[in-house]
Model the fold of this input.
Amino acid sequence: MPDVHQLAHMRVYMQIPVNGTEFSRPETRAKQASVRSHDEVDAFAAFYQHASKNTPALLAMKHGKQPENGLVPDGYVVFLVWEQVPGSLLGNGLSPRYANPPFWQLPLDQRNEIRDVFKQEYPKLLKLGFRPTFGSLDNLVWDSNLRKL
Done:
């Protein structure tokens, strides 16, 4: 039975109409329907299949098609749900040029510890065949209690 109190993130990938056809008849938009893969979806599926301990656990994934009254009838839609891991986000979603991410506010010894853990764990991720497309501090969560990245 699922834990109803578990915190999670959800992302939805949905095909959208080609620019300029947003208000076309559904039959016209339906001709645009396709199947598409997204790197994040493929990565989460592989991490789940290999029981990765270096990534958030995949809780649910569903591939489907949009209904007849959807943006692109029969176009793809993918729902992805993963656990919210404990810890602090090391980035802040802003360019380091404009803001000081939390990582850089930590004491040097803690930053060095995070770097050491990263050097140990990152190769394990690469062995699964994936490399982050947009690698940044915004994608890293540090649990200082467990010393886990």
